């Protein structure tokens, strides 16, 4: 193995990214401070226009977080007590959390074994007369099978919310993730492919009525100051985060291209040796995470740690087995694919500024582990 000259390989390196954008971000932030506008000002409106153009969607609204974006979508679709919403058990907790917060019941459907996204056939099996919507997650940056999912939604007259929090910029048959269903939701948590310097989010739609409703709900149910038409939320994207995102969105496509190049190098070295992320025709992957799957995961994680290489598990416990959802009555074995993947998956370092030398080091350690533990 070659001699490598660096201290560690993080899972994500935001400090290197900061060096690239530092001057531009500081200039934008100063513009906000000089303006005295901190809530729903010019920077938010400009960012909403930029993202609408980038995603080729009619309406775009900044929010306080990706979680709030999902909750706003549910509220705008009048989903509440007595309703069921089908989603995946293999995702971040917020996807199902907001369904429960609205008083509706999360109903889980197992995932595709190759892409880890919700399986369309399993969605159809889970539909009842109480089903009102499907929340589709584009996990790790790969778009779900939206053609089949939309066909099912139309067949049963269901609403579709896209949780595209990990998939901004990914495309499905020429359409951007988040723009295919009724509502699309995005997160700009700092670790996302487009990340703010704190919590921030976005909701998009082609439907004017949903746009107007979400715009009202995010601002305490108000359209005119101190006149409130319904009980809403305080979920506004603030000017400082919008200013930062305006700088970073200019780098988005470049950074996504770098992620794909890094993913391709992993794949070239790992294919036929271990389970790697699939590339499905027409379902683009933008690699928010690069996850491999193997038995003996904990041993690999330990080996990586011994060589100062970070890794992570997304996600160790499927949602149907979380303590918070015990009352739903699910048990181990209900969703075997999600359960199997949760025991085997591990994420490797991937970020736009990851150097070839550092990636080669990761590759060498993983291949060495596989050779000695085959």
Secondary structure layout plus pairing:
Elements (H helix, E strand, L loop, with lengths): L13 H22 L6 H14 L3 E5 L2 H11 L7 E4 L6 H8 L3 E4 L11 H7 L4 E7 L8 H11 L2 E5 L7 E2 L2 E2 L6 E5 L13 E5 L2 H10 L4 E3 L2 E2 L10 H11 L2 H19 L19 E4 L3 H10 L29 H9 E4 L7 H17 L2
Parallel strand pairs: 2-3, 2-4, 4-5, 5-8
Antiparallel strand pairs: 1-9, 6-7, 8-9, 10-11, 12-13
CATH superfamily of the largest domain: Type I PLP-dependent aspartate aminotransferase-like (Major domain)
CATH fold label of the largest domain? Aspartate Aminotransferase, domain 2
Distance between the termini: 19 Å
Find the count of extended strands (DSSP E, 2+ residues).
Answer: 13
Sequence stretches where pLDDT stays below 50 over 5 or more residues: none
Count the DSSP helices.
Answer: 12
Count of spatially separate domains = 2
List the strand order in the largest sheet.
Answer: 1-9-8-5-4-2-3
Helix content: 25-40%
Radius of gyration: 21 Å
Report the average pLDDT across residues: 97
CATH class of the largest domain: Alpha Beta
Major sheet, described briefly?
7 strands, mixed
Residue fraction in strands: 5-15%
């Amino acid at each position: 193995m070659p001699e490598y000259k660096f201290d560690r390989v993080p899972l994500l390196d935001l400090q290197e990214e900061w060096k690239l954008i530092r001057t531009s971000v500081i200039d934008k932030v100063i513009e906000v401070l000089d303006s005295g506008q901190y809530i729903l000002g010019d920077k938010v409106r400009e960012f909403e226009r930029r993202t609408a153009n980038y995603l080729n969607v009619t309406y775009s609204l900044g929010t306080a977080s990706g979680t709030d974006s999902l909750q706003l979508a549910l509220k705008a679709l009048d989903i509440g007590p007595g309703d069921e919403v089908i989603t995946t058990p293999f995702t971040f907790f917020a996807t199902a959390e907001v369904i429960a917060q609205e008083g509706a019941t999360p109903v889980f459907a197992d995932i595709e074994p190759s892409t880890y996204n919700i399986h369309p056939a399993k969605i159809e099996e889970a539909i009842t007369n109480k089903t009102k919507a499907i929340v589709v997650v584009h996990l790790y940056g790969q778009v779900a099978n939206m053609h089949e999912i939309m066909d099912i939604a139309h067949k049963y007259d269901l609403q579709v919310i896209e949780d595209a929090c990990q998939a901004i910029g990914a495309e499905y048959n020429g359409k951007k993730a988040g723009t295919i269903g009724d509502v699309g939701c995005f997160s700009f948590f700092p670790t996302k492919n487009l990340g703010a310097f704190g919590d921030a989010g976005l909701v998009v739609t082609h439907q004017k009525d949903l746009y107007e409703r979400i715009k009202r709900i995010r601002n305490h149910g108000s359209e005119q100051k101190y006149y409130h038409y319904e009980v809403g939320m305080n979920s506004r994207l603030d000017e400082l985060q919008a200013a930062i995102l305006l700088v970073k969105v200019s780098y988005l496509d470049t950074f996504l291209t770098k992620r794909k190049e890094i993913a391709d190098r992993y794949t070239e070295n790992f294919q036929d040796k271990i389970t790697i992320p699939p590339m499905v025709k027409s379902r683009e992957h933008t690699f928010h995470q690069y996850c491999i799957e193997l038995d003996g995961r904990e041993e690999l994680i330990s080996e990586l740690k011994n060589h100062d290489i970070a890794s992570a598990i997304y996600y160790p416990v499927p949602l149907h087995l979380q303590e918070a959802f015990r009352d739903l009555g699910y048990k181990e074995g209900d969703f075997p694919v999600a359960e199997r993947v949760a025991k085997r998956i591990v994420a490797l370092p991937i970020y736009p500024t990851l150097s070839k030398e550092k990636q080669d080091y990761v590759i060498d350690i993983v291949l060495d582990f596989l050779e000695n533990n085959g």
